[in-house]
Amino acid sequence: xxxxxxxxxxxxxxxxxxxxxxxxxxxxxxxxxxxxxxxxxxxxxxxxxxxxxxxxxxxxxxxxxxxxxxxxxxxxxxxxxxxxxxxxxxxxxxxxxxxxxxxxxxxxxxxxxxxxxxxxxxxxxxxxxxxxxxxxxxxxxxxxxxxxxxxxxxxxxxxxxxxxxxxxxxxxxxxxxxxxxxxxxxxxxxxxxxxxxxxxxxxxxxxxxxxxxxxxxxxxxxxxxxxxxxxxxxxxxxxxxxxxxxxxxxxxxxxxxxxxxxxxxxxxxxxxxxxxxxxxxxxxxxxxxxxxxxxxxxxxxxxxxxxxxxx
Length: 311
Hints:
By secondary structure, the protein is mainly α. It has helices spanning about 1-20, 20-30, 35-55, 90-125, 125-140, 145-160, 165-180, 185-195, 200-210, 215-220, 225-250, 260-270, 275-305, 305-310.
């Protein structure tokens, strides 16, 4: 019995090598892509650092020591201090948590909205024109002024809903605003893929036997368009982090005493001559995070596209 099971296992392994699954092909292509491996390694280090760092480096990011203002790098303060004597490393770690949380939350919102609209527009022809014109309308809007207006109008009412914790209301508002203004590219990609798939034989066969539209979408179409959705997800995280940092740099993000990478840049801009590290470290954190995510997204796109993969 053991010999037969071992023989079956060896046969399964041999078949997997000779006829690998699409996901195995993508993984092999990603593994051989140097940019993807470097990006994944850097992004993993950053995520683990901001998640686990505050438990290891337990300095309070809100602690103020006026006598230790604008200090350089030292053993006591590895990245120096700001003009209030607050530790820059502690604030950088907590700011990274905010950036990563906003990036992923806004990405999931925009991805869900874009995927839903793209699927409906691509499958139901009578709704295609209406939904695509709505997409064109959002694409034509000036996004940065729109973001600024929405935040200025709704930030104070949301702060009143969470007395004592205004950062919660600001977090929800920023995630919502970024999510509803960044779904259009995903919707267009998903729509084009859906238009191609609904003419395939397996979809026509399911339609001919009376399968409902929602069941066809969720069972036959959605699993076959996960690849471009994954690429949009990686690029959406980078875009959301950049947008949140820009809002915080303009002073329209989280409260001044709540550390974010964009806020650290904003606070350090006036002290560049006496403490340039205050701008270098948060700027480097934003750049490395966005670049690593973009490398992963580009490599994933190349791995999924058979025309690029077979070159």
